[in-house]
Amino acid sequence: MDRRCFLALSALTALPAIAQDSVWRRLAGGGHVLLLRHAATVPGIGDPPGFQLHACATQRNLSAAGKADARRLGAVLRREGVPVAEVLSSRWCRCLDTARLAFGSVTPAPMMDSMFQDDDTSRQRKLAELRRYLVTFKAPGNLVLVTHDVNIRALVGQYVSQGDMVVAIAKPDGSLRVTDIVPIEGLE
User: Fold this and answer.
1) Domain edges within the chain
2) Rounded distance, CA 108 to CA 7, Å?
């Protein structure tokens, strides 16, 4: 391999670490919304028929790998000095468990609950409630929202894998402007 090719390949493999360093520096200053999709679950889509919101055994839950990913994400954010002001989560067990494993404490928030089976009126109500909350949120640090794929797509039009994090800034109308996507894969 010639030297120019080697240098180009070396630069490409270093980009993710450089980009992550930049994200951590921005997050250390606070003022962001961290929109986190719950960590990896046992295989499946949605929940089994007849699931109950307050009965984790009836839901699709985190896998062992998902639990490890949630712990790792929390450890990375602490190591990088990312201040967390508040953690709100969907009331689904996979989201609450992700939040607890990563951040310790969490506040269940129905506005973050899965929109998977909601009609358009229910989806719009949840989005409006969240946007009102984002307009009024002024605490120092960053706001963490742990939720589901369908909610993230409704909020920012972005698909992310389980455990991935969307970094955004709340606009004056409560909508979100995405600044970064931090994949769970590759976090160290």
Assistant:
1) 3-182
2) 48
Angle at 117 between CA 147 and CA 179, to 5 degrees: 30
How far, in Å, CA of 177 to CA of 155, rounded?
10
Handedness of CA 47, 89, 71, 179 (dihedral sign): positive
What one-character DSSP code corresponds to residue 68? Answer: H
Tokens representing 59?
Answer: 């839901």
Sign of torsion over alpha carbons 160, 163, 165, 170: positive
d(CA 181, CA 166): 5
Q: Which CATH class is domain 3-182?
A: alpha beta
Place of tokens 């949120």: 137
- For the chain, which residues score pLDDT lower than 70? 1-19
How far is Cα of residue 19 from the mean position of the Cα atoms in its chain?
A: 18
Q: For residues 152 and 148, what is the distance between their CA atoms, to the nearest angstrom?
A: 6
Which of the 8 DSSP states describes residue 143? E
Name, in order, each residue with C-beta under 8 angstroms of 135's C-beta and a sequence gap of 6 or more.
170, 172, 173, 174
User: pLDDT, tens digit, for every residue of 108-133?
Assistant: 999 999 999 899 999 999 999 999 99
Burial of 174 (C-beta count, 10 Å sphere; 0-12/13-18/19+): middle
CB within 8 Å of 12: residues ≥ 6 apart = none
Quickly tell me which residue has 């909610």 as its tokens: 151
Per-residue confidence (pLDDT) for residue 160, from 0 to 100: 95
